[in-house]
Every structure is written in C-alpha cells, then in structure tokens.
Design a protein that fits this description.
The complex is a heterodimer of chains A (about 110) and B (about 110). Chain A is mostly beta strands. Chain A has strands at about 5, 10-15, 20-25, 30-35, 45-50, 55, 65-70, 75-80, 85-95, 105, 110-114. Classes of the chains: A mainly beta (about 110), B mainly beta (about 110).
Chain lengths: ~110, ~110
C-alpha cells in the first residue's frame, strides 16, 4: 500500500469541464510534487511545493493550477484541458525538496480528456 | 539540464535469470534513485543511492558517482519483476529527472 493517496483513480472530463485531482500524505513530508506521465514515457515534473510554497513550475500551461492547502494536501485544478493532456498524473512527496531523500509516489490518477 | 541514459531499453528474460540494468548520467549528482513501475502504473521506490552499494533481497544497486553511472542488479527474476525500471537523478536542485527506463519482461 502506498502512503501517498491520490483521488480519483480514474477521471474522464470534457474540454469545458473543471475538475480537481487530490493528493494526501501523512508521512510528515514537507515537499510535494506533481508529475505527468504519457504512455510509454518517463514521468515529467510539473510542479514542486516546498513548505507549502510553490518552488518550481516547469513552464506548465495555465490550464493546470496547483494548490497546496497544507503540508499534507496537494491539489491540481484542471480547466479547459485538451485531449493531449490525457495522461497519468502522479503525486509524490519527500522529506524536503532541498534535501536528498527518497521520493514516494501515489498510485496516480488516469485522466482522459474527451 | 542533466542527461540520463538507461540501457538496455528492453529486456526479455526467463524466470530465474539474473540481469543488470545500467544508468549513465551526464553531470555530478547528489541524488540518484531507482524506481519500478509495475504494469498497473504504480511507481515504487527501490533505492535511494547517490553513491555506494545497497541490497534489498534479490535486488541490489551500485552507484559510482565519480564515473557517473549506476547499476541495478536483479537476481533470480520472478514474473512479478516485470515492468519498467527508471533511474532518476537530481543535482541538488528540486525535483528529479527520469531516464527513459528499461522495459523488463520476465517470462514463466
């Protein structure tokens, strides 16, 4: 069982919909991440939060909007997505982003944009 | 940015065989991790190994930081070892850069 919990597991949305992906961890980690993974490709970093502050945004389109309400929760708000945004969205956490510690992933949300 | 190359890209083995997966990286790093992604998409952290050697059951890993490579050894393969093995590195900045992975198939 993973200690990083993501909901929902699957999501189908239209291009005009607004939806949110949720991620939760209770390991006391202070860094949380969103990665995007297309089929047969490696995960690509989207956002990094460190101590609830956005520290890295890898030039992600504004239709993806991250939010870190507290040190245990991470959301990804989705609006006006395109079919090419269909992918597996992975949340991860680590002790802290500026320290080198193991990254723990959730099971992901498989997103399909129609 | 740091370049990460993994080899081989694909590997098919019989159950019980041993294998060695390689990860080369282009710059010095102080963070290197190996992950296994199973056919259901779950990414499991196998090793955090910026240098040295570690072992966990049938798996072991060695990183030679001065020569910029890491090796993952799988002994006595089982069908549950199938999946994609990723090496990911970071040079002190936030986040990790993933290699393209080695797709391993273990046949019964």
């Amino acid at each position: 069982d993973t200690e990083v919990t993501q909901t929902p597991k699957h999501l189908v949305m239209g291009m005009t919909n607004k939806k949110s992906l949720k991620c939760e961890q209770h390991m006391g980690h202070r860094a949380m991440y969103w990665y995007k993974q297309k089929a047969k490709k490696p995960p690509e970093l989207m956002f990094v939060y460190s101590y609830e502050k956005l520290s890295i945004n890898e030039s992600v389109p504004s239709r993806f909007s991250p939010e870190c309400p507290n040190s245990s929760l991470l959301n990804l708000h989705l609006h006006a997505l395109q079919p090419e945004d269909s992918a597996l969205y992975l949340c991860a956490s680590s002790r802290a982003s500026s320290y080198n510690s193991p990254l723990h992933f959730g099971n992901g949300t498989r997103l399909t944009v129609t | 940015g740091i370049q990460v190359e993994q080899s081989p890209p694909d590997l098919i083995l019989q159950e019980g065989a041993n294998s060695t997966l390689r990860c080369n990286f282009s710059d010095s790093v102080n963070n290197l991790q190996w992950f296994h992604q199973n056919p259901w998409g779950q990414l499991i952290n196998l090793f955090y190994i910026p240098s040295g050697t570690k072992q966990n059951g049938r798996l072991s890993a060695t990183t030679v930081a001065t020569e910029r490579y890491s090796l993952l050894y799988i002994s006595s393969s089982q069908t549950t070892d199938s999946g994609v093995y990723f090496c990911a590195v970071g040079g002190g900045a936030d986040g990790l850069t993933f290699g393209k992975g080695t797709h391993l198939i273990i046949q019964p």
